[in-house]
Amino acid sequence: MNVSKKIHVMIWAMFLLFDGFALAESVKEMDVLDSKGMPFDVDIPKWLENALDGDYSLLEKEYKGAVIYFAEWDGQDLDGLKYLVQHFQVNENFSHTLSTAAIAKIRGNSKVCKESEGNEDFLNDIENAFAQIFYHGLELKKDYWIQIRTYKDKKESCFEDSYHYYVVYAMDRNILKRQVESVLERVEAESAVQQKMKKEAISFMDEVKFIIKPN
Q1: Are the beta carbons of 136 and 175 closer than 8 angstroms?
Q2: How confident is the model at residue 15 (pLDDT cuts 50, 70, 90)?
Q3: Residue 122 vs residues 100, 108, 118: alpha-carbon distances, Å
Q4: Which residue, among 213, 215, 210, 147, has the nearest Cα to 19 in the 3D structure?
Q5: DSSP letter for each residue of 75-126
Q6: What is the DSSP string of the chain?
Q7: Strand 66-75's sheet: what is its strand order?
Q8: pLDDT tens for residues 39-92?
Q9: What is the pTM of this model?
Q10: How far apart are the C-alpha atoms of 33 and 26, rounded to whole Å?
């Protein structure tokens, strides 16, 4: 990619993407100043360009049958970002994001949501169960950073430079589902409604494709 070429990057308004969800976006004009591959005359990888446009098809193809966790950090200091990435508590953060999405899925099911009234404690039990999973098989697959200049006006006289660090983790969907099923078996359902809620959380593992870490 030519450094002077303008690129459009999404500012995420949703952190979850799976079948049936629309992705809200805000687009700004930017220039690429530097990147991980630029010293070696290597273009920004296509998977990242596509991901920044909300297209995860290349990652989905490469990691077929996996749930992909896409994480992003941004700041002014590259070394500081590298430190954050190296010390990222991926298991804890993946668990929290996945459980939040699963609970949202339950609440989004109008029939289950209506029946689940008065079962907030049980929903908390489901959320806590996700936190007990170690997520064996969640692996770091890719990382890349870019430095960009964001223009704040059309005349390009006002701008801000910043680094963005992107990391891709992946976990086999079947392994993930088995781990979720195993831990949810220990969550005791005291009614038919609660049993439906458990099944809804497990079935979510068949639907989710990408989990996006909230910034």
Answers
A1: yes
A2: very low
A3: 14, 16, 9
A4: 210
A5: ES-HHHHHHHHHT--HHHHHHHHHHHHHHHHHHHSHHHHHHTTT-HHHHHHH
A6: --TTSEEEEE--S-SEEETT------EEEEEEEEESSGGGT-PPPHHHHHHHTT--HHHHHHTTTEEEEEEEEEES-HHHHHHHHHT--HHHHHHHHHHHHHHHHHHHSHHHHHHTTT-HHHHHHHHHHHHT---TT-EEEEEEEEEEEEESSTTS-SEEEEEEEEEEEEEEHHHHHHHHHHHHTTS---SHHHHHHHHHHHHHHHHEEEEE---
A7: 6-10, 27-35, 139-151, 159-172, 66-75, 208-212, 16-18
A8: 888 899 999 999 988 889 999 999 999 999 999 999 999 999 999 999 999 999
A9: 0.78
A10: 21
